[in-house]
């Protein structure tokens, strides 16, 4: 447990330890400790809420990258039912950094596409830390077209540090794969709903994130470059990541203010990893509501709105 | 005779050298070849010895591609508003304007190419590394819309390190914005030729630069998603010789052709005539 504790969560540790100890003693001696336990648990909940209310942008990044944070496959078993995973781009290989397939949301068939990180070294070797190669984006696009063919909504779950910067990825056209997804998602004739569930890493996130509605879990982040990358370029010093995270405006609140996302999905106190069931419930309800709304909009109107949404983004003057 | 000629030759060139002022000479960064500046200029800033394509300005591409006297600049008053109040961004913009002019990292306009009406966007690497922020996205989106509405082919010359950090995720969204307009251009079946120059990476390569109906690249241009430095850092080893060059992309099927600068205008015209259903250049005269 302690290995995954973030530095700013340390004040919670002592309380958690006391509660654990009390529970253990109670279990051994059959003494009723409910009376003593209640105030401690209340205090813990309050402290946790207090800490999470005041997270700095870089602390949010840490929460978004938390190794216990629910990933796409977790939500596929909690928010969705009847999942059938579909593999491969039909061109080169299957990219396990993106998982996709048919699933049901409240009984309705939808195409779910999401980045998938690994929980340990072995898994991350397979998942490449959720950093897709071109074939991942091409698989995603293939399955978006499949959804389009059968008039099913597309739901994408974004959780990636970014598109993978490697030799094979470049050889096989990383830029082309992302560019193609963008231009084809712009006119995909079925609703697209995106939720950023962890890290929204630049082009690798947008490649499956051009959508009719974009939602963000409260502690997720979305950025054009990682705070570390930004700090390294601007100040030649990756340790200035706090400063960069602040400057880049990457929190859900920031993005809502900038008009880039449509809704923030509240997370349970202590973040999604502290209570995955509650996080899944919140995500599920919000996705259902948006899918219901999107399905009611006539397709031509939906596409027109999608265009207008992105054409209005930016900050400029014309004097 | 032979020894006499050999003796004389260096003397003559030395005399020529003496008559030409020192600043009239230029050196190729690639092969070290030294030549009269005018010879570089007349070769469109391509090294007469090794063919290395030097960076040229947006204005030079406009002069190269657009018929003389037909250029009309568009959207000259668009400026960024520093939406994040990002430290030093305002100053950096001022420096960029000083260095490259007030028209931001892309210049857009319309004119004619071999008499055909065309919309043209040319990125300017001298303006903050050709980085794409709100102004670049908006100018290209408007140019593309205009091209679709008037059914005039679109030509975009890219040179960019990618999205502009200082505008945060709004820069990223310019990839989506331009893609929306390119998609409309496609639906309208108006041709779009993307010309990649050194370098074209990041958010620009991952959007409109790689969305051309035809994509051509200048010889030696570095084109990719991630920059060479980032890849090197990630994989922890040196990159193979020629990695991410135009020729590498051609070999891997990512561009339609590598076209030397001297042929850029003719090739673009030829392609447009094919795609716009016009007669070949000879017959048109
Ligand atoms: Zn040379």
What descriptive keywords fit this protein?
heterodimer; A: 319 residues; alpha/beta; 2-enoyl-CoA Hydratase, Chain A, domain 1; eight-stranded mixed beta sheet; 14 helices; globular; B: 285 residues; 2 domains; seven-stranded mixed beta sheet; two-stranded antiparallel ribbon; 41% helix; disordered N terminus; binds zinc ion
Structurally, the number of domains of chain B stands at: 2
Which CATH-level-2 architecture of the largest domain in chain B? Alpha-Beta Complex
Instruction: Supply the CATH architecture of the largest domain in chain A.
Output: Alpha-Beta Complex
The biggest sheet of chain B, with number of strands, parallel, antiparallel or mixed sense and barrel status, is: 7 strands, mixed
Q: Segments of chain A where pLDDT lies below 50 for 5+ residues?
A: none
Mean pLDDT, all residues of chain B:
92
Question: What is the domain total for the residues of chain A?
Answer: 2
Largest interface: A-B, 54 and 63 residues
Which of globular, elongated, flat, extended, rod-shaped describes the shape of chain A? globular
CATH superfamily descriptor of the largest domain in chain A: 2-enoyl-CoA Hydratase, Chain A, domain 1
Question: How much beta of chain A, percentage-wise?
Answer: 15-25%
Helix count from the secondary structure assignment of chain A: 14
Please name the fourth-level CATH homologous superfamily of the largest domain in chain B: 2-enoyl-CoA Hydratase, Chain A, domain 1
Q: What is the third-level CATH name, the topology of the largest domain in chain A?
A: 2-enoyl-CoA Hydratase, Chain A, domain 1
């Amino acid at each position: 447990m302690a290995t995954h504790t973030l530095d700013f969560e340390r004040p919670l540790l002592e309380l958690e330890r006391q509660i654990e100890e009390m529970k253990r003693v109670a279990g051994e001696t059959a003494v009723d400790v409910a009376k003593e336990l209640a105030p401690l648990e209340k205090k813990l909940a309050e402290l946790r809420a207090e800490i999470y209310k005041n997270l700095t942008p870089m602390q949010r990044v840490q929460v978004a990258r938390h190794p216990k944070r629910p990933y796409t496959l977790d939500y596929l078993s909690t928010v969705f039912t009847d999942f059938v995973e579909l593999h491969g781009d039909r061109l080169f290989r299957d990219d396990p950094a993106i998982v996709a397939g048919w699933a049901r949301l409240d009984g309705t068939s939808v195409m779910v596409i999401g980045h998938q990180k690994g929980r340990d070294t072995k898994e991350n070797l397979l998942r490449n830390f959720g950093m897709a190669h071109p074939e991942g984006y091409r698989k995603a696009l293939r399955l978006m077209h499949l959804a389009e063919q059968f008039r099913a909504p597309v739901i994408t779950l974004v959780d990636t540090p970014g598109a993978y910067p490697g030799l094979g990825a470049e050889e096989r056209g990383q830029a082309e794969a992302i560019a193609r997804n963008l231009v084809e998602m712009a006119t995909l004739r079925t609703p697209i709903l995106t939720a950023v569930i962890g890290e929204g890493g630049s082009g690798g996130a947008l490649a499956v994130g051009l959508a009719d509605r974009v939602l963000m879990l409260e502690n997720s982040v979305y950025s054009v470059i990682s705070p570390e990358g930004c700090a390294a370029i601007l100040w030649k010093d990756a340790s200035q990541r706090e400063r960069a995270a602040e400057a880049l405006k990457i929190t859900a609140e920031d993005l809502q203010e900038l008009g880039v996302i449509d809704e923030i999905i509240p997370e349970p106190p202590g973040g999604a990893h502290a209570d995955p069931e509650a996080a899944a419930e919140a995500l599920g309800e919000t996705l259902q509501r948006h899918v219901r709304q999107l399905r009611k909009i006539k397709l031509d109107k939906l596409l027109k709105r999608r265009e207008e949404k992105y054409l209005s983004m930016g900050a400029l003057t014309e004097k | 005779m032979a020894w006499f000629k050999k003796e004389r030759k260096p003397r003559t060139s030395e005399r020529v050298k003496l008559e030409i002022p020192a600043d009239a000479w230029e050196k190729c960064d690639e092969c070290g070849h030294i030549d009269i500046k005018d010879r570089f200029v007349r070769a469109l800033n391509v090294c007469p010895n090794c063919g290395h394509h030097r960076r040229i300005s947006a204005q030079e591409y406009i002069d190269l591609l657009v018929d003389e006297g037909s250029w009309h600049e568009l959207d000259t008053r668009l400026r960024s508003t520093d939406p994040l109040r990002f430290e030093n961004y305002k100053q950096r913009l001022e420096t960029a304007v000083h260095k490259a002019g007030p028209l931001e990292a892309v210049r857009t306009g319309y004119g004619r190419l071999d008499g055909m009406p065309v919309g043209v966007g040319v990125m300017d690497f001298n303006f903050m590394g050709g980085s794409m922020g709100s102004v670049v996205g908006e100018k290209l989106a408007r140019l593309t819309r205009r091209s679709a509405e008037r059914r005039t082919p679109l030509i975009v010359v890219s040179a960019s390190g990618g999205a502009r950090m200082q505008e945060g995720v709004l820069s990223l969204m310019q990839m989506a914005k331009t893609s929306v307009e390119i998609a409309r251009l496609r639906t309208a079946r108006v041709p779009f030729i993307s010309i990649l120059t050194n370098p074209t990476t990041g958010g620009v390569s991952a959007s409109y630069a790689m969305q051309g109906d035809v994509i051509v690249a200048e010889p030696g241009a570095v084109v990719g998603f991630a920059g060479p430095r980032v890849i090197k850092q990630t994989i922890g080893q040196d990159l193979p010789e020629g990695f991410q060059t135009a020729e590498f992309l051609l070999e891997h099927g990512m561009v339609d052709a590598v076209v030397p600068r001297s042929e850029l205008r003719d090739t673009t015209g030829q392609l447009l005539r094919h795609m716009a259903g016009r007669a070949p250049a000879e017959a048109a005269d």
